[in-house]
Amino acid sequence: SDVGSQKERVVTEEEWLQKWEMGNIGFHKEQGHPLLQKYMDVLLNGRSGLRIFFPLCGKAVEMKWLADMGHSVVGVEVSEQAVKEFFSEHSLPYCEEPVPEISGAKMFQSTSGNISLYCCSIYDLSSLIVGKFDGVWDRGALVAVNPCDRQRYASLMISLVEKNSSYLLVTVSYDPNKHKGPPFYVPESEIKSLFG
Ligand code: SAH
């Protein structure tokens, strides 16, 4: 398939912040994603007390699901508005603190301590800062990353997961010649070459 028309396209962080400000967030699923419900067992694989990562998390309600199941959730999101809306919409008290390793970044943590959301670009993170994860829910993340940044994103994600981790990835199948994205079209062959 010809994805040439999307290759050069870039959505800037500023544009994402604007989407949040304008309430232009059609990607947000208030009821959570049915595919996570369906594949929860694959993600958890019978294990408890996992560390689960939500890249480009928005205010995904699935973070609350996993925290309520006793797992520890870490997300990263550029929009502070999104992060604050997550906590307020679930009536979760939180505190915020600077992240010493990343200039300008803040970490918002639920008072109970099991949900930590970094407000910064995902490219500022490393396993030295956030540790490694047992599971990843990648929905609206790889497909939202600019095509020119995909390799960098995938390498970073690989560096953030433990050996025995599960990585659930949602992509969207459509004709990339008809829509400019995001979400961007990521062909299966590319997923294979990115993640091996
Ligand atoms: N995963 C969420 C949101 C998907 S939309 C969900 O399922 O609802 C993609 C999100 O990524 C937006 O909220 C946008 O603000 C955020 N984002 C875009 N680029 C980012 C980056 N480089 N680092 C962190 N967050 C980013």
From TrEMBL:
<keyword id="KW-0949">S-adenosyl-L-methionine</keyword>
<dbReference type="InterPro" id="IPR029063">
    <property type="entry name" value="SAM-dependent_MTases_sf"/>
</dbReference>
<feature type="binding site">
    <location>
        <begin position="16"/>
        <end position="27"/>
    </location>
    <ligand>
        <name>S-adenosyl-L-methionine</name>
    </ligand>
</feature>
<dbReference type="InterPro" id="IPR025835">
    <property type="entry name" value="Thiopurine_S-MeTrfase"/>
</dbReference>
<dbReference type="Pfam" id="PF05724">
    <property type="entry name" value="TPMT"/>
</dbReference>
<feature type="binding site">
    <location>
        <position position="56"/>
    </location>
    <ligand>
        <name>S-adenosyl-L-methionine</name>
    </ligand>
</feature>
<keyword id="KW-0808">Transferase</keyword>
<feature type="binding site">
    <location>
        <position position="77"/>
    </location>
    <ligand>
        <name>S-adenosyl-L-methionine</name>
    </ligand>
</feature>
<feature type="binding site">
    <location>
        <position position="139"/>
    </location>
    <ligand>
        <name>S-adenosyl-L-methionine</name>
    </ligand>
</feature>
<dbReference type="GO" id="GO:0008119">
    <property type="term" value="F:thiopurine S-methyltransferase activity"/>
</dbReference>
<dbReference type="InterPro" id="IPR008854">
    <property type="entry name" value="TPMT"/>
</dbReference>
<keyword id="KW-0489">Methyltransferase</keyword>
<protein>
    <recommendedName>
        <fullName>thiopurine S-methyltransferase</fullName>
        <ecNumber>2.1.1.67</ecNumber>
    </recommendedName>
</protein>
<dbReference type="GO" id="GO:0005737">
    <property type="term" value="C:cytoplasm"/>
</dbReference>
<feature type="binding site">
    <location>
        <begin position="121"/>
        <end position="122"/>
    </location>
    <ligand>
        <name>S-adenosyl-L-methionine</name>
    </ligand>
</feature>
<comment type="similarity">
    <text>Belongs to the class I-like SAM-binding methyltransferase superfamily. TPMT family.</text>
</comment>
<dbReference type="GO" id="GO:0032259">
    <property type="term" value="P:methylation"/>
</dbReference>
<keyword id="KW-0963">Cytoplasm</keyword>
